[in-house]
Amino acid sequence: MIMATSHHVIIGLSSHDVVRGLVDSQDEGPAEEGIQYVAMRNLFTREACEALEVKVEKKSYSRHVRESAERVEFSKTMEEWSEFRKKMNPDSLTHPPEFIVKPRGQTVWEGKTVKLHCTVAGWPKPRITWYKNNVLVDAKTHPEKYTTESNYNMHSLEIKNCDFFDTAQYHASALNVKGEVSSMATIVVKSRQLYYRKKVFKSYGYSSEHGVTFNTTIIDKFEVAFGHEGETMSLGATVIVYPTVKKYQPDVVWYRDSVPLKTSKWVHTHWSGKRATLTLVHLNKEDEGMYTLRVNTKSGFDSYSAYVFVRDAEADVEGVPVAPLDVRCLDANKDYVVVTWKQPAVEGSSSILGYFIDRCEVGSYHWAQCNDVPVKYARYPVTGLEEGKSYQFRVRALNKAGVSRPSRVSETVVAMDPSDRARLRAGPLAPWTGMIRFTEEDSTAGVVPGEPSDVVVTEATKSYVVLAWKPPMQRGNEGVLYYIEKCISGTNTWQRVNTGMPVKSPRFALFDLAEGNSYSFRVRCCNSAGISEASQPTGAMTVGDMMDLPSAPGVPVATRNTSTSVVLHWAGSKEVKHLAGYYIDCSVVGTSEWMPCNNKPVKQTRFVCHGLNAGANYVFRVKAVNAAGYSQCSAESEAVVVLAAVGKDCIHLHSSILYITALKDHMVITWDAPAHDGGADIRGYFIDYRTVKGSVTGKWHELNQKAVTTNTYKAENLKENVFYQFQVRAMNMAGVSKGSVPGAPLECKEWTLTVPGVPVGVHAQEVRDTSLVVLWESPVFDGRTPVTGFYLDLKDASVAGDQGWKAVHEKATKKKFMKVTGLESGTSYVFRVRAQNLAGVGKPSANLGPILAQTRPGTKEIIVDVDDDGIISMIFECSEMNEGSKFVWAKNYETMTDTSRLTIVSEKGKTRAIFNSPSLEDLGTYSCAVTNTEGISSSYTLTEEGLKRLLDLSHEHKFPVIPFKNEMSMELLEKGCVRFWCQVEKCTSACDVEYAFNDAIITQGKKYTMKFDKSSGLIEMYMDSLEVTDEGTFTFKLVDGKAKGTTSLVLIGDEFRALQKKSEFEHAEWVRKQGPHFVEYLGFTVTPECNVLLKCKVKPQYIGKLLLLQYLLSKKDAGIYEVFLRDERGQDKSVFNLTDAAALFLIPLLSLCFRDSKMAASERVKSGVTGEQLWLQINEPTEKDKGKYTMDIFDGKDGVKRVFELSGKGRCTHKDAFIKATLLYSRLAAAIAERNRARVVGGLPDVVAIQEGKSLNLTGNVWGEPAPEVSWTKNDRQLVSDERYKLKFEAGKFASIIITAVTRADSGKYALVVKNKYGTEAGEFTVSVYNPEEEENKIITDEQLNWLH
Length: 1349
Known about the structure:
The chain is mostly beta strands.
């Protein structure tokens, strides 16, 4: 029995997701893919493809079975037919790509994310590629901007953080073996700034308004800038818009962090028509950020961005926190506003305890503190405002050290109802005055308001709770006030909070709640008609912080960026609410000081830290911040050295291609190495060529499949008489650079030139304000004869064309370098080099420059150092080392291959070249260049004189000597004691002294006493007495570390015996003075009465006298007089010999007169007594000495007078004697003058012939008493000692002249002139300077002449 049963069979089309799931479950293969194609085409071409279509039909069981059987049979037939088609035509299932769903164009705001979708079918499975304005979109290269996905034939392109640059046409291209198909969609990104200004932005291209397409270029751009709070900073750039259209100006807009800037008292903008300037007045940390200059034209726009950092100003009190920032006012109402701010980057010497909020009514200058207790949250509800008044707010931070400076004031906020503020946005009610008017509503109708609704807790902290609610729907025709009530959970007691002061705003902040307790809240309305019913209470709420501190960010990863910046990435905080941003700190490895990298929090997890020291090793950490406070700092990053990142785009090939030689089928080219290697060594070069026919150029083709390591290449298999052009690309570990500037087209044919080719490798080093060094290499093509020299030319870079070239030197030089001096600082110059052979001078090299004659800031020179061990070395430092930078030393600007003379040691930014065994072989110019920098280099010339000075200094350091301020001396003290002493200039506390006598060490004891005062350097040794055995050498030996010093005193022979006798006498005197003794020994005086008085003085005080009358004095009184002293203590004796003194008694009785005037003794006129004769002596007699001389002798009673006439008058004539004496004196004076006059006695040649470039050193021997004055002359012009001429006069006998590196200008007639009071003399000689190269060039053999002809 068959029962008819009803079945509901679902017949319909499943959605795309269902079909996609079915397709994914099948095995892949050509047949299955074809079925998928058919199914998906039929599926997605229907209008209702995105919805599940369901049809319900009622069928009998028999019909269902019959249809099922027919369906199975049909399926088998289709499978058999499909298998047959596969066998007959395997490609029948392949299909070209087809867009089932095409991407659709969209319009979005700036900063949003947009996503394009498409669905593509085809077999084999098509490959999808996205293009932007026909330029490939590379999502792997720019993952921060683009994301592409391809899943189950569904493809998408996501564009993040859209800006105006993303406005373009985007193409999705699908490609397989059967063909290619594409679909386009347009994305338009709208600027809110331009939208509000009602300006329509046009895409790139033709401008119908002016009939031209504008091209915008921004030059003289502002760089990354650093400022401090309170300073004024200006940013600017020059804008060039081409072509120039009269009365048309572009729209110039400045942005900070993608937000357009408006002119205010803090921000001033200026557009002069060519230059855009932004001035930030009184910098604050709010001004930190990414600044963008955007220039909008009718044809498009151009923009440029750079970051501005603002550092904190110095704190008034050390240790206090810095000022908070970004103070804003939110949720303003009639009497209530929420003030928010951001915590500063630096908390000071201790953590921040809280913040104080100040308010000021606009129009007054009085700041009132809003809170008595500091709040920790960076949010605070300020209540009690007066409706209709305007306010400003500021915030101060507090820690244990004190209170910070206040933040920048907030924008002005008006206390008013939000609905009124919305109505007033279109303009003030009083447009002419700008004032806001408030009117009271009519209160005639007394209607009790309804209860408020939706009472909620919007903010909750330990310090306060903020309630918000909706005003009642029924409130009459007048305003309403609100009362707030609270209830502790578990009780039914409601307590009104603001009984005395109802609030006008639907917001209220409750303070002084007990932390940890649970509360419920409700609100009532009131007006003049009464108080409403209470609102529905809030749920129980426990007082505490609703917002937690952020979790610590992930470990930052630092990567190199530039020589002064590092790029930092980190994972954001996982658990954080209302994130304000991140602060980044950095620290130099080895120090514990952390410095902020940014003073304004950033929300991105990528940041570029600028202003770092090049070559320093840094670590970084990150902390998050929200209104609750700071998170824990992240773990420190791995240390990174601040160097420029490695990249192929950093390689710059400035020089054009140079052609060295050419034949019928090949050409040899050369090029200069790149100035920058991109942070990694250059691994090779690739050369490209193309043919040139007239103004038509062909495509570039590679010449070499494998990179060449030299900068010279032979291009082979070329066609004769065809013009070729070449370019070079450099390669490092990061990839291959862009091509160099192509060389000039040149025909491939054999050269027949006789002159040399162009010098190559021209470059400059050691660029300074007034000098630089130009270096070059010889040309590869010498011509018919070898190269004999080079010429260097220069010109001012401001002179256009080939005019203004000047030769740096007159004669050819064989050197491949030359130092150019006499440049004008701040002027740019261009250089070129020409080679010469016997056939003539070749073409100039490629121009070098322009090069600005200016010393690079921070430039350091090579210094020569002699260390404590006496090692001589040259030191060069560079603070701008980049990745891959190396120090390259050269001697005479040629790379040094002999390492036996120098040892090079380089570490970080410092290199040292150590002389292994300094000698004359090391003389020359040493240079050091730093690769991969802006031409940092320096040189040092080691001369013979300098080497001698360094060797002397090295010997002093190897064998240091303790300098003595005073050598050893001796003095005799009382009792016959002898003191030996010396004094050193300086010594350390470790200095030690050894005392020696005749090389035997002596120590302190009974005989010797030693003292050494190290503070003053005084060394003393005392001996009680000198004995016969003490004759010899006394020595002090000093040792102070490595330094040594010795000083000695020799006491032998007569000197020792005299000292010993004196010592014994002093000792005897001391013994004598212990008893009665003479203080003054017996002596004589002559009284005015001409009596001779003998007297003495003894101790105890007693004067003994003996008077001898002068007139009775005779030879019989001559003799020896003695005085004796005796008592119980001892005795003493004094002796006076009157025999020797008798003649002296006559001196006081002698009187001399000249021309009746008494004569006074002087250096020229002297008198005296010899035995029984009296004499008068006149030195250097003159005519004035003629006259009468009178001599009176008086003995007390009688006198004798003698007269002597030298004038020829009187009784006796002595005129002849005077004349003879005068003549004799003249002859003697002339003989003395001839003997003592200044003269040149030898040492100077008559003629000196010297080679150009050598040093001239001559010394002349001179004589004269007194020592003569010395001077040198050249061509009768006196020379002055300077760097060119070094003049010396030593020991009063040797005069020398040194001329370094003589030139032709030094040829001439020289003289050594000496002079003193007795005469002058000159020693003359001639100097001739010659150039051996010119002599050789003047002599050309007959064979050479015949060969040239």
